[in-house]
Design brief:
Elements: H1 2-16, E1 38-45, E2 51-59, E3 64-72, E4 78-85, E5 99-100, E6 109-114, H2 117-124, E7 128-134, E8 137-142, E9 144-145
Antiparallel strand pairs: 1-2, 1-9, 2-3, 3-6, 4-5, 4-7, 7-8
């Protein structure tokens, strides 16, 4: 059983292009980060079979966050994706602590946005989570500093 699981996980990692590292830290946002940029990454997992990664870069001078997300095996079409404070459950209402992605949600997702001071504080304070939702599935994980 162990070797079967290793084979399956290895195939998934290879398909997603993870190689040895599976937390997204070896991934780069779609644009070259500016000098002094702060990088974040996370491995995305669901309770079903979906998996993926996010890599993000915050330019502290401009307050612009740039991200790249890839995922596979999501059950159903993605309905929304957002960054938010981990404890806050989505209620459908606008929230200044949440950043709703407005671009197409098919993998890969690339985007950027200028953050508010409060959003930057939540991100750099380790409080922000990235979530991708579908009708029958959900990928979510807290962003962590990346090298």
């Amino acid at each position: 059983m162990g070797s079967f699981l290793s084979t399956v996980l290895g195939a998934l990692a290879s398909r997603l292009g993870w190689g040895e590292r599976t937390n997204g830290a070896d991934r780069q946002p779609p644009e070259t980060p500016s000098p002094g940029a702060v990088r974040f990454a996370a491995k995305l997992m669901s309770e079903a079979d979906a998996a993926g990664w996010i890599a993000a870069s915050l330019d502290p001078a401009s307050g612009v966050l740039t991200w790249a997300v890839e995922y596979s095996e999501l059950e159903g079409e993605p309905t929304r994706a957002y960054f938010s404070v981990a404890e806050i459950e989505w209620d459908g209402e606008p929230d200044p602590d949440r950043l709703l992605l407005s671009e197409a949600l098919a993998s890969p997702i690339n985007g950027s946005a200028r953050l508010t001071a409060a959003q930057i504080a939540n991100l750099t304070g380790g409080k922000w989570t990235f979530t991708l939702e579908a009708a029958d599935d959900r990928l979510s994980q807290a962003l962590e500093p990346a090298p």
